[in-house]
Design brief:
The chain has an eight-stranded mixed beta sheet with strand order 3-2-1-4-5-8-6-7. It has eight helices and eight strands; from the N terminus they run ααβαβαβαβαβααβββ. Helix 6 packs across helix 8. Strand 4, helix 6 and strand 5 form a beta-alpha-beta unit. By secondary structure, it is α/β, with parallel strands linked by helices. It has a single domain, classed as Vaccinia Virus protein VP39 (Rossmann fold, 3-Layer(aba) Sandwich).
């Protein structure tokens, strides 16, 4: 694996990247695939996340979620892919996956692991704005998982992410974007920050900033302003005793928003 060089900065500067957040994640990058390490909460969450993504995408595109490779032929973009914890399962479900991350160490970790297990993923060190500026082709599925609470400008970030959601073609539906994040509530502060970072120490202290958390109504507004239709907002709840996640109606801490591109969806004015 190549070493960092002065000509290849570890993290990129852009309107969606907060340098303080990047420095924090840089210290943790080597630990992505350790199920008992710093990213243990994501490993625990992954089963529920993968099932929810698979079901949502299959519902949207009329696929059978019980098929061996239900996402066969779909192009999928994972924004802020980290070490690739979602990219690899999406490939195994049949998708053609691109993962982008602003932190070079994350991309190196993800590439190395994918090569070791023989899973083809197109990993890129970069930002979503760079993909938009380069005129990249849009994707059928865009994953935006546990990222928005770490960016500098969430509304601009969502607008750029939306630009990567494909429009309707050949009579089929337009693309779909799935976003997951933490609500800005006192309950979320108590459990997701104080509990997870300071008491249980599941995450390093400072991983989440309360004032950067996003309420469901705010995320809905960003998505609609960017030109997507919000189809569902789904709650995710953790049982700390069994360390298992449940999908339901409780959005007070973690929630997932499913938004889709209609035939003539365009950004709203004003």
């Amino acid at each position: 694996m190549a070493h960092d060089t002065a000509s290849a900065p570890d993290h990129l500067t852009s309107v969606s990247v907060d340098p303080r957040e990047m420095e924090s994640f840089s210290r943790m990058a080597h630990d992505w695939w350790n199920p008992d390490g710093m990213f243990r909460p994501l490993h625990v969450m992954n089963g529920a996340r993968i099932d929810l993504i698979k079901q949502s995408v299959c519902d949207h595109f009329g696929r059978d979620p019980d098929a061996d490779r239900p996402l066969e032929g779909l192009r999928l973009l994972d924004i802020g892919c980290g070490g690739g914890l979602l990219c690899e399962p999406m490939v195994r479900l049949g998708a053609q996956v691109t993962g982008v991350d602003a932190l070079e160490r994350n991309v190196k970790t993800a590439k190395t692991h994918a090569e070791q297990v023989g899973v083809p993923v197109d990993y890129r060190h970069g930002t979503i704005e760079q993909m938009v500026e380069a005129g990249e082709a849009a994707f059928d599925v865009v994953l935006n998982m546990e990222v928005i609470e770490h960016v500098a400008n969430p509304q601009d970030f969502i607008a750029d992410c939306t630009a990567m959601v494909g429009r309707q073609k050949e009579g089929g539906p337009g693309g779909i974007m799935i976003c997951s994040t933490i609500n800005r509530t006192l309950k979320a502060f108590a459990f997701a920050i104080v509990g997870a970072e300071y008491i249980l120490r599941w995450l390093p202290r400072g991983t989440h900033q309360y004032d950067k958390l996003v309420k469901p109504g705010e995320l809905r507004h960003y998505l609609e302003q960017a030109g997507l239709q919000v189809d569902r907002i789904i709650g995710m709840s953790l049982n700390p005793l069994t360390e298992s996640w449940r999908i339901g109606d409780d959005t007070s801490i973690n929630y997932v928003t499913v938004a889709t591109r209609g035939v003539h969806d365009e950004p709203m004015s004003g």
